[in-house]
Amino acid sequence: MATGGDSAGGAQRPLLVLGKIAEILNAFTLRQPSLTLREIQQATGLPQSTVQRLVTNLVAHGFLDRADDRFRLGVQMAYWGAAAGKDLDVLGVVNPVLKDLRDATGETACFFRVEGEHRVCVAVAETHHALRRTMSVGDIAPITVGSSGRVLLAWNPGLAERVLDAELPRLTESTVTDRDELHRLIRQTAAEGYAITVGERVDGASGLAAPVFDSAADLLGAVMVHGPTLRMPYEKCVEWVDVLVEHAERITRALGGRHPS
């Protein structure tokens, strides 16, 4: 006969309160890093009294920080996340998420990092479509061109200033080479949390990208979906923004990262 927390099969039943705590912590995202009690209750669907009780305890133990009537993930969480990710294989986290993103959109998903004043592809999940815009690990492109480059510049102002001081390469008729316009687009990317480009690096190709951050809230890289504009017109890219950002957030969370405050 099972006793205590053991089921008939001998497996321990999960504590219900841990599930509720997880729901509360998962309510905080890169787009909504700060929430009120009411917003937490609406996001989780938990009773108001339960939310108030659990949030009070989460603040007391450092899981959440409070400023006036708003709450955000606590600094202690970043400390634990950094310890968990110390020996973490970044690509081991990135690659499965890219495959999920590829399957969700049907298009090639990539991960880019800064290399000097360029961007380099470090992971790819290739589309299954026969018609594709080929991208391979190790491919290097100008950082001033394309959606992933715009994301990498949006959270790296020092690099943005350096590359915008130099001559901007033109790869297609749609490439942005006006410095003031590119400054504006970089600011827009930082404000919106993603970038969409059509035909800037390759004629007839589109891309949308979102940032990934580490435990110090520094930019780690950019997740991008790209493919032929025939299948990815601007309107389709807009439809995929939430899917893209969700997958970028998955990587950030898995690596113990957090969005800059």
From TrEMBL:
Q: Does the keyword ATP-binding apply?
A: no
Give any GO molecular function from the UniProt entry.
DNA-binding transcription factor activity
Q: Where is the IclR-ED domain?
A: 76-257
Q: Which residues form the HTH iclR-type domain?
A: 15-75
Keyword set for this entry? DNA-binding, Transcription, Transcription regulation
The answer to whether UniProt assigns keyword Transcription regulation to this entry is yes
Q: Which domain of life is it from?
A: Bacteria
Which InterPro entries does the record match to this protein? Answer: GAF-like_dom_sf, HTH_MetabolicPath_Reg, Tscrpt_reg_IclR_C, Tscrpt_reg_IclR_N, WH-like_DNA-bd_sf, WH_DNA-bd_sf
**Which GO biological-process labels does this protein carry?**
negative regulation of DNA-templated transcription
- Provide the protein name: IclR family transcriptional regulator
Q: What is the species listed in this Swiss-Prot or TrEMBL entry?
A: Saccharopolyspora elongata
